[in-house]
Here is the input.
Amino acid sequence: MIKRINDVLAGWKMTIIGGIFLLASFILPRVGYQKGEYLAWACVVICGLPLLYLAIYRIIHNKGVSKISSALLISMAMIAAILINDLFAAGEVAFIMELGALLEDMTTNRAKKGLKNLVALSPESGRVIENGKEKIVLVSEIRKGDIVRIIPGETIPVDGIILHGETSVDQSIMTGESIPVDKCEGETVFSGTINRFGSIDIEATKVGNDSSLQKLIRMVEDAGKNQAPTQRIADKWASWLVPVALLIAVAAYFFTGDIVRAVTVMVVFCPCALVLATPTAIMAAIGQATKHGVIIKSGEALEKMGKVDIIAFDKTGTLTYGKLIVSDIIPISSNIDDIQLLKIAASAEKRSEHPLAKAIFQRACDENIDLFDDAGFKMTSGRGICSVINNVNYYLGNERFIKENNISINKEALQILNKLREQGKASVIVSNDIEVVGIIALSDTIRPESKDTLMRLSKMGTKAILLTGDNRKAAEYFSSKIGIDEIRADLLPEDKVNSIFELKKTHKVSMVGDGVNDAPALKTADVGIAMGAMGSDIAVEAADVALMTDDIAMLPYLKWLSVMTIKTIKGAITLSMCINFIAVTLSVLGVLNPTTGALVHNAGSCFVVLLAALLYDRKYR
Here is the structure.
C-alpha cells in the first residue's frame, strides 16, 4: 500500500502538481498574500515523501555504507529547511530532485525504446497447417517442425525455412536492411520480420525463446543489468559525501553561528549529479548501439572497449562470410574448357549433399548452365564420387581418391594443387578413366568491408591480429589480402585462449568470433564480440557484445561510442564536482541560501542527465 502511494506521488502528473503549488507559494507572498507560502507544504508532501521513503528503504535493506544515499542527504536537507521555516527551500529541494529522477527515467526509457519496439514485434498468434487445414494458434503453441503459413502483411511468428512460395521480407529489425529481401524455397526467415508480398509456408526451426527475435529481446534486456566499475565508484562517492557534507555543515554553523548556512551546505552537497552521470550515459549509449544493431550486454564491456588497443579476429565467419564458393575453374586437358569442366562437375555433383558439391552445383545454376543427365552415381565417404555422364566415367574428389582409381596426377596438376593449398583453397580434382581433365577450387569469401574496417581501427590506435586454425601458408595468403601483419595460425580453441591470455599481460584485448570454438576465447578476452546473426548461440552467449547485422564495419563505431561514453561520464562527473565545490564555498560565505543553493545544485543534476540524453542522438562520423 505504501509503495503504491509512493509510486503515484513519484510520477510525472503528481510532480507537476507539486511544482504548481511550489510556484504559487513563491508568487502569492510577493503579491500581498503572505499565507500563500504555506502552499509549499503540498510540494513537500508530494515530492518529499517518495525521497523520504527511498532513504528509509535503503537504510533498512541496503548493506554497509550503501545505507547512506543521496536520498538520505536530500531528506535531511529538506527537514533542516523545514526546521528553519524555509518551506519554499524544502519544497524546491524535493521538487528539483524528483524532477532530476524523472529526467533520468525519461532518458533510460528512451534508451530502451529499441527493446520496446522489439517486444511489440512479437506476434500473438500464427497460422499452423495440420492435415491440409489451416488453424490459428497462439505463438507459444507452435512447435519445432510445424508448418506455418504467413500471408502478406503478417509478422513472421517463428524462425523457419520456406517450403512453398516466394516473397519479399522486411527484415530491417534483424539486419538493418532498409530494402525488403527476396526469399524463395529453402531460404531462412526470422521471427519478428514482416512478410511483405507473397504467401509462404515455412517449417518452424526455432520457436519460443529459441527464436531470433526472443534471443535479441533477452540480450537487450540483459544489457543494462551489469553495472560498470565507474558506476559503482560513483555510488561509493555518494556514500562518503554524506558524512563529509554533515561535517562541513557543522563546521559552518560552529564558526559562523548561522544555521541557515549549515542548512544550505547540506542542500548543495547532494551527490545526485555524480550518481546520475554514469548510469544515464551507459543506458543512452546502449540504446544508441541497439539502433545500429549492436547489442552491448553490460556497461563494463562498453567502458572497456574504449581502452582496447588490440582486436584479435577469428577468420571464418568474421572477416569472411564463412561460405564456400567456386573461386577457380582450371581446365588441364586440352580437350576441355572452363564451361565444359564446370558443366561436367556440376552434373556429377548434383545428387551429392557434400558442401563442396553444393557450391559447385550452385555456381552452375548461377551461370544458367544446362546440366547433363547422369546414368550412375556412387559416393565414397570423405574422398569423392563417381558418376557416368555420356557413357564416360568421371571421378571427382581428392588426390587419394583419384589415385585409388588408378589415375595418375601429372606434374602440372600437382603444382596447381600445391599453389591452391597455399592459398587456403579447397580443391576438387576432375578426371575420367584416363587422365585428370581439370581442377575446381573453392574458397571462403572475404567480406568487402574487412580491409577498410581494419584501416579505420588502425587509425584509432587499435591493432588487428589474426587467430586462426588454418595452416600458416593459407593464413599468410589471407592476411596479405586483407592487411593484417601479425598472424597466429594452426590454433586449437585452447591455443586461442592462451594467445588471449598472453596478449592481456600488456594490452587490453578484444576478440571477435562466430563459432563454438571461439567461445572460450571470447569469454577470456577483456571484451568478447560475437557475430550475432550467423554466429553460434554459444558464441553469442559467451560474448559481451553481439553484432546482430554481422557487419564488422560496426567495430570502429563501437570503439567510438565507448570513447564518447567515457568522455561524457568524466565530463559530467567533473562538472558536478565543480558545481558542488563552488556551491559549498558560496554557501559557507553566506552568498547562497537554501532556496538559491537548491536551484544551483539541482540544475546541475538536470544538466548532467541532459548530457547523457544528447549522447543517445550523437552522430558517428
